[in-house]
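can u pls check wat happens w/ iron/sulfur cluster
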Amino acid sequence: MRSFQVINGYNGKGLTIDLTSGQIEEFNLAEDVLTSYLGGRGWGAYFLTEKSDPQIDPLSPESLVVVASSGLNGSGAPTGGRFSLIFKSPLTGTICSSNSGGFWGNTFKRTGFDVLLIKGKAPTPVYLYLSENKVELIECPELWGMSIPELTAHLLTKHSSTARVLGIGPAGEKMVLFASVMNDLGRTCGRGGGGAVFGSKNLKAIVVEGKKTFSPAQREKYQTGLYQANKLLRSLPVTAKAFSLLGTSGLLKLVYQHDMLAHRNFQDTYHAPENIAKISGERLQQTIFQKARGCYNCRIRCTRLTRVGNLRGEGPEFETISMMGANLEIYDLPTIAQANYLCNDFGLDTISLGNTLGAAMELFEKGFLSPKDTEGRNLSFGSQNLLVPLTKQTAFRQGIGDLLAEGAHRLTLKFKAPELAMVVKGLELPAYDPRSTLMQALGYATSTRGGCHLKGGYMISLGFFGGSREVDRFLIETVADHVVDEQDSGCVADMLGICRFAYFAFSENELSRIYSGFTGVDLSPDDLKKAAKRVIQKEREFNLLAGIDPSQDTLPARFFEEKIPIAGQKRNIDREAQFNHMLAKYYEIRGWKK
Ligand code: SF4
């Protein structure tokens, strides 16, 4: 018989919400679900495989969205405020776990609930209000169509300034396949189209107000872990200084210098140095920067508040500058920042949008798209004046925006040039060219949500500034081991709610002390890694049942066939053979079959 004993640091309770009937039911979380899957991404993998059909249409009412707090939300763990949304992605058909920082996740856990399982479709738009005393679905047709700032202002006025708002903008309502779900205004569950799933359910927002507090079960162990983690954060230059000073945009020069920065839809990685200087973190700091800000309990504070004329907002982050700027040959920070503000306001994933625009520009330059498809406009690379209008058109599915809203894979298929989609399993690649590090190549190919640097293993931390963990990014024999290890570590962070940037500095060694001290359940670093393997295995099984077969564990042919000069790497290597060798080793380690 399953045990339902509440474990310290958790609430032990969840809610099942049927939006079709409006019925809300409370349930208890079994002890083994708490400690075997830990929280966040882990609970998503568990509930999606247990309670959802992998073959379901992700935009149908029957699809399930899991909203999960994380194992260390409510604790003092550095950066430990992240939460996860887990759903079947309408963009890729894979399971998709997407997490976000800010303050929403921590406040959610403090309402007294750990997890929400949301199904059905509300007859009219609704939002969910959740506090320690009240759970309510509230009809809100008047909020449909609102941008994220309008929605947030309205709901904070209606409830309280201490409430936290998670919601979708017009892009989610229009079911743009890479629509994001935003929280705390500028924070985002960006990847995989969670916003479209919310939109398909007529779910506009989730408002939380919670004040419950948690105390550690074993104070001494807990505090030792916190002390060690904070010490490491203070000692690694990237977490102690670089990200605080320049935000993630400080990565731009570094990635460029390592021949990794995508250019012209990944045709190469060459950018003129003077162009990089125009969009660098230093330039951002000198021109549009206003203020730094951090998520819950974060001393790194990488968030940049910026201003362009009368417009203000968060970002742009490294990925946005790279994919909506450098990748498109647009080297103008104010333009990129304005498009980024719109993505935040309307709820769009900037990586997928930038990548899809890159595919559209290559389609145009190669004659697959003609001016009649683009409303008479020249969509060549470098079309700076089109970035803001195309962002708006995509969010509202207007004109060519309706095609862009389908993502790079479907766009290129429509114009019979799927080889121009820089995607893995349908998910648009982020800014790191996989030819420039073998680890990133294998990580993209094997990530359970498709082409992603985070779920695939954040390899730049090992390749560039891993401190004592730094490794040779071209050493083929060790690649698979490093990728598995990084993917597992990343999954631990995703289950416990820790920011990947903090993970540059500390690891499971510190987290096992913090988690064990907080909950009173002794889990060693190895136990945490085992939990991660369990979760990744479940995600893999979901994908296989969804019809995502192992042949999709690969890269776009461009990365095998089109050779570009990469410093430190031989040019005449058989990239495909090299990749297959690494993949076979990876399968062997995971115990997966071809
Ligand atoms: S490092 Fe940046 S993204 Fe991570 S928790 Fe801190 S402010 Fe948020």
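The two ends are 37 Å apart (CA to CA).
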